[in-house]
Amino acid sequence: MKKILIQYLYIFVITLIMLLVFTMVHACEEKQVLDETLPICEEYQVSTEENPCRKDNVDINTLSDALNKLGESGTLPR
Q1: Buried b / exposed e across 27-63, counting CB within 10 Å, b at 16+?
Q2: Domain identity same for 16 and 45
Q3: What gap in Å lies between CA 27 and CA 25, rounded to an integer?
Q4: What are φ and ψ of residue 56, in 5° steps?
Q5: Is it the case that residue 35 has pLDDT exceeding 60?
Q6: In degrees rounded to 5, what are phi and psi of residue 57?
Q7: Engineering a disulfide at 53: which of 18, 33, 41, 65 sits with its beta carbon 3.0 to 4.6 angstroms away?
């Protein structure tokens, strides 16, 4: 009886490890595919959930320019 329980425990542990590995691999593949399918945003293109895009080469100057534009438009409090 004890041998059978130990065998079931081994089977359970191996199955659990396989499930975790396959889940991690699937998550990584899904993220990679998502990144490749998104177009790069143009200068004035708006990114939404329905029409997402990714930005490349975002640096501190780009962020400061964007904050300045938001401040000038009146959407940010001063």
Answers
A1: eeeeeeeeeeeeeeeeeeeeeeeeeeeeeeeeeeeee
A2: no
A3: 5
A4: -110, 150
A5: no
A6: 55, 55
A7: 41
